[in-house]
Amino acid sequence: MKYHSPDSFHAAAEISANAPGSTRFLAGGTDVLVQLRSDIFTPDNLIDIKNIEGAKAINRSANGDWNIGAAVSGAEMNENEELKSEWPGIVEAVDLIGSTQIQGRATLVGNLCNGSPAADTVPALIAADASVAVQSPNGERIMKVADVPRSPGKTNFQKGDVVKNVIVPAKKNKSSDAYLRFIPRTEMDIAVVGCGVWLQLSADGFIVSARISLGAVAPTVFKVDSAADILIGKQLDDDTLHKLAATASAACNPITDRRGTVEYRTHIAGVLAERTAKIAYQRAGV
Amino acid sequence: MALDNAKSNGFKFVGTRPDRPDGVDKVTGRAKFGADMTAPGMLHGAILRSPHAHARINKIDTSAAEAMKGVKAVVTRKDFATDVHFESGLNGETWNVLENVMAGEKVLYDGHALAAVAATSALIARDAIKLVRVDYDLLDHVTDVDKAMEKDAPVIREGAADKSVPDGFHPNVVRYHESGHGDVDEGFSKADLVIEDSFKTEATHQGYIEPHACLGSLGNDGKGDLWCTTQGHWYAQKMCAALLNLETSQLRVTASEIGGGFGGKTTVFIEPVALALSRKANKPVKIVMSRSEVFRSTGPTSSTSMDVKIGMKKDGTITAASGVFRLQGGAFPGAPAEFTAMCAFAPYALENVRQIGYDVMANRPKQAAYRAPGSPMAAFAVESVIDDLCKALGLDPIEVRLKNASHKGTKASFGPRFEDIGLIETLEAAKAHDHYSTPLKDGQGRGISCGFWFNHGGETAVSLALSEDGTAQISVGTPDIGGSRASMALMAAEELGIPYEHIRCTIADTATLGYNEISHGSRVTYASGLATIKAAKDVVHKLCKRAAQKWDIPEDAVKWEDGCAVPSGANAGDFDPLPLHKITANMGATGGPIVGHFEATPEGAGVSFATHIVDAEVDHATGKTKIVRYTVVQDAGKAIHPTYVEGQYQGGAAQGIGWALNEEYIYGDDGRLQNAGFLDYRIPLASDLPMIDTVIVEVANPGHPYGVRGVGETSICPPLAAIANAVSAAAGIRMKQLPMSPPRIVAALKSLKDG
Lengths: 286, 755
What we know:
The complex is a heterodimer.
Chain A: E1 2-4, H1 9-18, E2 23-26, H2 32-37, E3 45-48, E4 58-60, E5 66-69, H3 74-78, H4 81-86, H5 88-95, H6 100-103, H7 108-113, H8 121-127, E6 131-136, E7 139-144, E8 149-151, E9 154-155, E10 162-168, E11 175-182, E12 193-201, E13 207-215, E14 222-223, H9 225-231, H10 238-250, H11 262-285
Parallel strand pairs in A: 1-3, 2-3
Antiparallel strand pairs in A: 4-5, 5-10, 6-7, 6-10, 8-9, 11-12, 12-13, 13-14
Chain B: H1 23-28, E1 43-49, E2 55-61, H2 63-67, E3 71-75, H3 93-101, E4 106-107, E5 113-119, H4 122-129, E6 133-138, H5 145-149, E7 173-181, H6 184-189, E8 193-201, E9 213-218, E10 224-228, H7 233-244, E11 251-255, H8 271-281, E12 285-288, H9 291-297, E13 303-312, E14 318-328, H10 337-344, E15 353-360, H11 375-393, H12 397-404, H13 423-432, H14 434-437, E16 444-453, E17 460-466, E18 472-476, H15 484-496, E19 503-507, H16 524-551, E20 558-561, E21 564-567, E22 578-579, H17 580-585, E23 595-600, E24 608-618, E25 625-635, H18 642-661, E26 692-697, H19 719-731, H20 742-754
């Protein structure tokens, strides 16, 4: 295994594109190092991007969009009060990952690039309509987070791609987000089902825009437009909530594994869609 | 055992709560655990484990591994003793352990060891085992206990059944137990209500935080040393010697500090392998298991399938009880089916009772002891049925248990008559506890259960030496898995009359003391405690003798009081009290070192009972359970160090909460373990647990000088049942399978809704 510590994302992309054998990017290392230590995967090239200038920065573009660097840790996001008040759902999703120690290392970008269908932050990012800035040897491009996941453990990034930062849009008026996951215990677990919801309300409390995303109930995290459509023009009355739950459940295509059965995951997706929507609605109305 | 000068009150040290002597070492990192031992020239071992649940080994080719740079030795079964022979049941236990440590003709479960490598680094060893080529013929496998008993189930090993098994059973049924008294059919006919139901529990792991680790050094002259994390180093010595064809005394074993055992470190896994590698490489070899290896290859507890039938009169009197308990213990005999059967109805004084236990083999790791092996599952089945009877007849669950409770003189369900026991006292204390009378909130349920464990004595040797400065050092042979060094020092302080802080208690190696049985059976505070008291009395006797010599009066004219020799009465003479340190200061000149010792197999361990109260809350939409309140009431006989007694109570409840709600061995259709790690094997986190309240009941055990009963195991007997009763009440449906994971609860609620 060869260790690289490039000083720019462009250099990182060049190494990744040209190095022989397998590569992994190292930011927080909470997936990569665990896989290495437990003999699950040892890459030929380990490309450390956390020392690249800007990788640990949270800042805002002129239009108000948030740029969250590839090596920003969960703890750093959680300590940014402004980000937390605009996007409480995203920050909650990050905060659910691991222990206090893990929070000091784990990154939003790493959670996305790991490609897990159960990644906690991905449903929240998709609900927020977030994008990523991707550097390749040929230049930089913007890609929607919703377009990143391909299959369990795989993404649609190409060899030579490296994510510089996540872009979260500026908060819109009377909008908010929420994320809930189900785990059998209180913490330190992988989502059996995860659900991200973003809602925007009219002045009189009707939903004018919505995005819903589910995790761990299909080969990838995905956006559930059918469930979001149910909410448009509605308040969260019981009938709407029941329809939302049924539609979310109907969109699921899960597997049975050590974390849950097909039936259970499908059922929980509906329960979480209801509960998450209620939180987002309450927040958006404030 | 007849006990002279037993003491039940007026204690000066016993019952106080001083700091534990090993505490500073543990919080500063100075304590040496299994993986902390190193030696010059040390190699690292790694073990190749079967990925298959059941397969015949045609060939193991180690040549590529042997050729790898840095590899110094490779061993397979042929490097172990060849004169250990297969026998049926537990008669062949040495062969069973050997076969588990290193597979012979077949691999019997996912994780079964079949080759090992020693190399100059742990990474080289890890890579080298990947170069060992194995040619397998895959065989059909079975992991479920009921399926393993069916006619067409794959046979794990012909001839493993011993003579106890009646004709007509599948060869996987290897031991059979039946006991009881009275006529259960007649008893059931006298009942106003009879309930019969079936229950299942999954295998759970002890979940000790420290993985198995050892360092072995063995020469071709047959002399060796072994350092390991274990609950019983004399057992490790005996078993390693047998498996490697050594003379027992030529192998010295030292127990490291231990990071939890709970029964799971009462046997050997990697220790004989490290020694075999060392013998071949002529260097010390260290092996440290990964967590995945711990789950796949060490002993979880048995999984069970149980049928229980109980008859009750309208007034709550139990007229008869019967149970069938099937225990899956992995690919070897030894599942504690007889304990499950014998513990099942022990809390109750029954005229008619019958219990049957089956020890069944399957393609899973060899089960190991786990805290009161077999008893918690029995309580789950029995106490669930009692709960249903109480509900159906409109009776209070504590009153019903009080009405039927075993007491002194009761003929136990498993045979003998009970001596002094404290079950009724625990029930009365539970009834009087604020917890039991606090109203429940909406959506909550409350559960009650009793639990029983035998406790154990076992071979024990203790030595107690005095130093010139008047301090004392105790050598015990039972690894400290629950604060026992503090308890030993307290008991010695009580006898010697010197401060607790002046006593150091050490776990001696196998070359230093006589044979000590494993730290199991809740025996340490009882048996090593009894031996410590006796050794201290031996020292006191010798101290009095020195005083008598000095004063030139007869030995029996001197007695020991508050750490001093004093004349036993006015006629004995008028001498100032002679403190211990003044006697030891010149003991070299007055007769030599003063050392007391005691060796015996004490048999008065005294059984123990507990009653638990649990409140649970169930989210009906997700099936998730929260334990909102928990109270443990248990008879300790006499609490030597009450903080550690409370710790045992809380620990048993915490492990029981995990077992009841989320912990389980999950096997795929391929027979492979799906959750060999703490991520998906879900033990409770601190945030999953409520404060666990404790009540120490003290009904003295006549078999111990101070009345001690073991407390380590009984605490895990009631939780499964008490939690199941609480959850069933909160969910509105009887939960008959553990763990009561959210998917199982949702499925049960759906079946209720669907009718």
